[in-house]
Amino acid sequence: MRKVTWGQRFAALVTMAAAVSVSACGKGAPSGPTTTSGPQLSFFVTSATSTTGNLGGLAGADATCQRLAAAVGQGTRTWRAYLSAERDATTGQPVNARDRIGSGPWYNASLQLVANNVAELHARTGDAALFLDERGQRINGQWSGSPTPVEHDVLTGSNADGSLAAGLTCSDWTSAATSQAAQVGHSDGLGPNQATTGSLSSWNAAHTSQDCSNTAPRGGAGRIYCFAR
Questions:
Q1: Is the model more confident about 16 or about 42?
Q2: d(CA 62, CA 56)
């Protein structure tokens, strides 16, 4: 009888293992890493605040969104601040916030649907239970039981339809001047005494700030909205 060496036995085992692997792949076994699908965080109000309207321009605001998203494990996607501007630093053209955020859908940190698309987003009102920060925390506002102070004014520089509100962008988010102001929205969709009349329920175009030197008067803290594209 011919003697089988250890090397020959090892080669036979390797060949057998390869054959089993090929057979398994042919039967639908996974051949690479699996991925999970479903809602992911794609919208938040920033936990970070700014005393003034100087956010470092659109680029600085985008960087804030990216940094906060990364801090909660969502930094692999591209994040953009929901801000309009008179002049894009690269193209020199006006910027509408609605054009910066992709097509949706968007989910908050609790994986609740905020809006399916751009049209639906701009047809809705603010909501303290949905417009959360990246950690899933509510923003101080006019809602029942809210902590103080009120900080629901969110910088947007935009009209209700997401277009540029000319002259209300703190010089494209680079100014802390008392001679300029910004358009803000109410993240909770509520005004004083929980009023929802007029524009008070608007998440992106409730009223103007006092000026760009201090975001606190009238109920703000220099927060912005962030969307994953």
A1: 42
A2: 9
